[in-house]
Amino acid sequence: MDKVATYFEMGCYFYSSEDYDMAINAFTKAIELDQNDYEAYDQRGLAYLKKGQPNEAISDFNKVIAINPKGEDGYNHRGLYHYVQKMFDKAILDIDKAIEINPEIAVFYLNRGEAYLNLNKWAEAVTNFDEAISRGLKTAENYALRGEALAELGRFKQSEEDFNQASLLNFLEEVLDNKVVLLADPHL
Q1: pLDDT 10s digit of each residue in the chain, 188 long?
Q2: Residue 113 near residue 121, CB atoms below 8 Å
Q3: Domains along the chain?
Q4: Phi, psi of 120 (to 5 degrees)
Q5: CA dihedral 64, 130, 158, 145 (to 10 degrees)
Q6: How many Cα atoms are found within 13 Å in the side-chain-facing hemisphere of 82?
Q7: Residue 148 contacts residue 159 (beta carbons within 8 Å)
Q8: If DSSP codes are grouped into helix, strand and coil, which group holds residue 186?
Q9: Among residues 72, 73, 95, which one has the least CA distance to residue 83?
Q10: In terms of Cα–Cα distance, which of 103, 101, 102, 98 is closest to 115?
Q11: Distance CA 95, CA 144 (A)
Q12: Which residues contact 161 (CB under 8 A, 6 or more apart)?
């Protein structure tokens, strides 16, 4: 593995450990060695976003798009930046571009649905949550968000079903997490 890849993987590890300062440092070292490493810019931008440094994040996401304009992640992540900044219309435009590039990614529809939800565009939100679910993103979050939009549309029975599904998925996740802990600790 070369130095760039090593620093990139190091950054990914620190990011997943929520040590965003260390992640930023590692991604920066990867970028210093290869200024066209758009994945390192992208991941560093996400770390900046998590740290609450939006100016640095948007700079990195713009760099990702400049280096790799045919890649969907730069647009989706810039859309997340706009979402965090409560610029929901701009978020939708960027996520639209990500979906245009790769319509198979379910989380893009979830992200766009959340932006529509914040604009009180309930029907558009439901359509996007439906699409995310149909593409396999059957998470408690997705069902709960769709349930919220359905309630706003007065579709209470469907909303109730979605919230029941979200509760069940949360419960199952808790059970699985506890089983993993029990299996991992031989003293229990």
Answers
A1: 599 999 999 999 999 999 999 999 999 999 999 999 999 999 999 999 999 999 999 999 999 999 999 999 999 999 999 999 999 999 999 999 999 999 999 999 999 999 999 999 999 999 999 999 999 999 999 999 999 999 999 999 999 999 999 999 988 887 776 654 444 444 44
A2: no
A3: 1-102 (1.25.40.10), 104-188 (1.25.40.10)
A4: 60, 30
A5: 0
A6: 24
A7: yes
A8: coil
A9: 95
A10: 98
A11: 21
A12: 147
Buried b (16+ CB within 10 A) or exposed e, 26-51: bbbbbbebbeebbbbbbbbbbbbbee
Alpha helices in 119-155, H assignment, sequence order: 122-134, 140-152
Report which of 69, 64, 71, 68 is spatially closest to residue 46, judged by C-alpha positions. 64
